[in-house]
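Example S7 (structure tokens).
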């Protein structure tokens, strides 16, 4: 199979635990690009936390794209937005009310990657979100923001054990109208209805006139499952959770041992 597009998750997939891209992964991706294969980073991260990694891989200019905020936004690397779905101010207020009434730490991210919370105690995962984007953390009540304020996604933060306890409650509250996914041990995220990596990847494939069976997708978490379902070939990391492993076509080495590069060399080059 001659794959035309590689859709690659970032955290715990392409990135090592120290958040770096290994030399081998960089070299293999560069070889794929040189052979005319489109490489697209598909991340739950916001735009500001992805774009520098794309540049590091040489994915620049109008013909390269990134999928961010779990599939809520697609942008070319020259700054053109081709797809975006946001959550309304009404949802934002409901989200904050739910978080506060159930004693769950949270933050939300706006389209410019700025993080907001009204928590008096800043949970470490919330601080990490702001650090990751470099766009700051704003302590604001919903009433402090304009009525047309929109967000890309709402994020519940906490220890793995705490979110395990709250997970069912969160899903019961939001599953009917939104896409809810555990994107990491300390994060449960709520996305706009119909927003996930699979739908975004399908939109981009149609935009680029690339057949879905010519796509290879890589991931490790449940939010990668929609991407696995539409790609022609899916690769789960050895360190992946059970969901993506069950439906993957291949399980590669873990993110500390060049798993992405190993699979690209084996199946795409």
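Recovered sequence:
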């Amino acid at each position: 199979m001659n794959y035309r597009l590689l859709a690659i998750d970032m955290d715990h997939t392409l990135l090592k635990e120290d958040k770096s891209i290994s030399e081998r992964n960089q070299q293999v991706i560069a070889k794929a690009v040189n052979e005319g294969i489109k490489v697209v980073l598909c991340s739950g991260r916001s735009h500001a936390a992805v774009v520098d990694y794309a540049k590091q891989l040489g994915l620049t200019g109008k013909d390269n794209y990134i999928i961010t905020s779990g599939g809520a936004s697609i942008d070319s690397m020259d700054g053109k937005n081709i797809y975006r779905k946001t959550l309304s101010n009404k949802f934002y207020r409901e989200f904050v009310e739910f978080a506060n009434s159930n004693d769950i730490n949270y933050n939300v991210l706006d389209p410019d990657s700025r993080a907001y919370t009204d928590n008096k105690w800043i949970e470490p995962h919330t601080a990490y979100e702001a650090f990751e984007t470099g766009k700051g953390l704003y302590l604001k009540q919903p009433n402090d923001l304009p009525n047309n304020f929109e967000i890309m996604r709402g994020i519940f933060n906490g220890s793995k054990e705490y979110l395990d306890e709250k997970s069912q409650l969160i899903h019961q509250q939001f599953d009917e109208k939104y896409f809810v996914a555990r994107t990491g041990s300390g994060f449960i995220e709520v996305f706009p209805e119909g927003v996930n990596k699979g739908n975004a990847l399908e939109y981009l494939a149609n935009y680029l006139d690339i057949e879905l069976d010519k796509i290879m997708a890589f991931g490790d978490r449940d939010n990668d499952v929609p991407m696995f379902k539409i790609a022609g070939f899916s690769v789960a990391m050895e360190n992946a959770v059970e969901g993506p492993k069950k439906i993957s076509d291949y399980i590669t080495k873990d993110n500390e041992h060049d798993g992405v590069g190993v699979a690209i060399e084996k199946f795409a080059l």
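Notes on this example. DSSP finds ten helices and 14 strands in the chain.
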